[in-house]
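[SOLVED] Need 3D model of a two-part complex

Original post:
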Amino acid sequence: MSARVKRVEPVRERPWDWATKNEYEEVTVRIQPYLHGHYRHKYRKTEYDIYDPRYTRLRSSNWDAFRDPKRFWYYPYTLNRKRMADDVESLFDRALKLGLQDHVADSWRRFSEEFYIPLRHYEYAGAVQLQHVVRYAMGGPIEQVATYTAFDKQGRAQWLSSWGLDFPGGGGSAALEHGKELWLDDPAFQGLREYMEQVLTTEDWGEVLTALHLAVEPLVDGILYDGLNAVALAHGDVVLPELSLICQEQIKWQEQWSQAFFTWITEDPASSRWEYLKALGYENWPGDYRWGKTLSDPRETPEEELTNREVVAEWLSLWLPRALEAVRGLQPVFDRHGIPFSVASSVERTVDQAIRPLVRAMGIESLPTLGGEQHVE
Amino acid sequence: MAKLGTTGRYRALTRDLMWDPKSVDWKQVYPLVEAEGIILKDPSRWEDPFRMTFNQYVKIQAEKEHLHHAIRHAFEAHHGHARVVDSRWFEGVKAFAVAVQPAEYQAHRLMAYIGRNIPVEAIRFATFNQALDELRHAQIEIKHYAYLSRYYDGFHAYAKTNENLWFNTVPKSFFDDALTAGPFEALIAIAFSFEYVFTNILFLPFAASAAAVGDEHFASVGKSVQSDESRHMALGMSAMKMLLEEDDRNVPIVQRYLDKWYWRAYRLFSVVATLVDYYPRVRPISWKRAFEMYVEEQVLHGLFKDLEKYGIRPPRNFEDSIKEKEHYSHVTMRILDHAKQVNYFRGFKLQPDDYEWLHNEYPNTFDRYYAPFFRKMDDHVLAVASPGLPAVCAVCQIPTEFPNPDNPSEMWTQYAEHKGKTYQFCSPGCKTIFLEEPEKYIQFWWPAESYLSGEFGSTLEDMFEYFGFTPEETNEHYSSRDYYRWIRYREALGLDRSFQVNG
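Solution:
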């Protein structure tokens, strides 16, 4: 006796005319339309289409070809972050019940309050400018990772706030207010604050990703969620290192997809902004009848002279020195509380272990800031 | 130090995170904030009504996702597609699929735009969450179509269909209009006109219809989406009150946006009227009653009474939408039937029970104005097909085939000249919208014009290739291969049997 129901044969084995390998691709690839938007902007960039390759200097032969190494779409992303939210809440809950804060050395308590709390503004500014990326980036796969990363940054800003309310000195909202004053006025934070303001006024979404994920974030996050763990433990603080481990998981993903994105895009030989149309099956597109005059033969009118690799190198040579300076400027916060930590060494380590290998992986031969194979001064 | 209460804690986690920039000009950070003439004095006192933190958001949404995807898995595992009462339902699902899902996606990008450009943290917080929600909606809807596409026509090239087909220019023009407007207009357009006024009528009757015909998965999509929408509706309401209370000079601007976007949203929902009145064979509610309940009662008599104190009146053309309620679904179905040979979802011959239901629900209009049209198809399904691509309204993009509700035997079509060119409109509502921003609306992408310019290639095959489906996927359902296959699926599963009980 078999309880097997007769098989109902599908009429097509794959759902879409384009190939997809998994659920992530099924709900991500081609989700963004490319052609035939109805109108152009009323106020700014009035010559641009709703999804326009000219929002970045980068060019791609297929904007839909990027893949998130973790294949996050809404369902797995939300489930994954729900676990982290539970972990953070139970961490704080247990730590408060056990009074773990009472075992923390005074110097570290004062330092951590003045260091971690102001950086919630750094996280939040990143989240805000990633919304710009979400709006203007080309293609579902790219803007989707930006969407979840923005949400992560917002989450970390809240976790730092939540920690700040209860932990370092139990200072409540006064501690957060003090943190904001430091962010706005303490000389040690001004480089980083200014950097984030410059990011907030950067319009090219590829440049925003460069400034955030290739320059400032590896440097700051390397201290915030990794480098300081041993120091914290040495001062009797186990809460921040545990929080860091959870945040580190988000940071790792952010680094993974950023590396995947930049190595993918810098290898792309596309010379025209319009080459991606071939991948969409519009290789014979004569141009939109409405704007035919502005894009008469778009595939032969590249507006960018440099290759993607050169563009990224140019961005990095602008942003990396700024980032290095801004992050090195944080040292006085450590010094005035007697915390034995060298920001310069941490920065150097990050440059050696993360940034320089990535720059090399992108095929960028030399970057003046990195001084070839030399150590950063 | 006193412990913070829930509200204080929420404030501490979500406010004062942005700062007034010191090294760059504030206007460089918010380049669009002054473009529309909206005045903000002290928006920091505004609260978002839902008080959702990152932690709460992912916990609540993870629960919803668990529930919904469990239902989806069960539906897929047990051939849910074969178990509906009549497969013509899926023609309606196709319409919804290829039109609504891209709209959700556009709303996702739009919410990021609004949150980035409006410097009010209460609003930004809600829009961040909503930007994620809208991506969720697009993706859970796509999952339904990904499954159905293995068994039914019409879905398999939805991206192309969305980019190139005349039918999809309707929802696309709505969201493209908002995406190219200033951030405050976009906020009123979506958060208020779309979400607050109309999403109940989009998701509740449609989810109820899905449940009534046995499409358990889509019923769950509708209900799960709607549970997010209640948050979006609250945002729409509080954002609008904030703008009205910030400064009196905002009132006429908000009124102008309400006037425009009420009619835009109302026209966009025309197809929903057919999805409620025509496609399901078991119908829980009519468009007319749903409109009375969700729009007339809740919005006109509820909400706009509350807004009187701000000097806000009901939106222009509200009366027209009320007059149209007895005609709306029939007219729209007639338009779809005219063009069913160039659409990825099919029309269908009305059955005796359809005629009976429509007669009972619409005693004043159906038999007199519309039944004769549908009867023409009894003998030949293409008897009512219009040749060529339809002439469309320059604002809403719907074919200009609406009757004047005051005199249903004449057309409502309107005309206006702009820079030596004549434009046509489906209704006075759309014509007024055009006249207020002609430079915007003359840009609309018209597939017929694109076709004539050679973009679709030279043959009919080229055109269908561009549309993303084939002629076999069009026309009428009961004579289609989809219906034939559905019968075979049911036989394979034994669902064609009926069991007698002696007793």
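Edit: Chain B touches chain A through 100 residues (CB under 8 Å).
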